[in-house]
Amino acid sequence: MRRLGEDHSGERIHSRGLGHTVTIIGFLPEADKGIALKDLCRKHGFSEASYYLWRSKYGGMDVSDAKRLKALEAENARLKRLLAEAMLENEVASIMSQAPLSPIDVLQRI
Fold first, then answer.
1. How many of the other CB atoms lie within 10 Å of CB of 72?
2. 3 and 47 co-located in one domain
3. Within 10 Å of residue 95's Cβ, how many Cβ atoms?
4. Domain count, the chain
5. Domain range spanning residue 101?
6. Which helix (H) or strand (E) holds 95?
7. Helix, strand, coil % (nearest 5) of the chain?
8. What is the pLDDT along the chain (110 residues), one digit of tens a residue?
9. Of the four, 72, 84, 94, 99, which is 20 to 30 A from 105 by CA?
10. Is there a single domain that holds both residue 5 and residue 36?
11. Are residues 46 and 20 in the same domain?
12. Taken in order 41, 47, 50, 51, is the CA torsion positive or negative?
């Protein structure tokens, strides 16, 4: 018997990898072909709310577009981390360039 979160072949579809996105892109057109949404959701093991969310994010994409989107999202996350680290380093350097402080004073100002 199929469990929630598995497609008809028994594979899990709610992982966060690219395979998840490819799976979603694969069954979005099924709803456009006239398959009832409730039947489609039951067949693949997801809710109607998830369908509408995925349709708004991935509707009209093909697999290469999804790969590009994932790559851009990963690059964006990496750049955000770099920016946060640089801002923290600048803040620490600014505090350290002021009058001599104890380590506790430095931590309190951050």
1. 10
2. yes
3. 16
4. 2
5. 64-110
6. helix 63-97
7. 70, 0, 30
8. 444 454 455 555 444 566 777 888 888 888 888 888 898 889 888 899 998 998 898 888 888 888 898 899 999 999 999 999 999 999 988 887 876 767 777 677 76
9. 84
10. yes
11. yes
12. positive
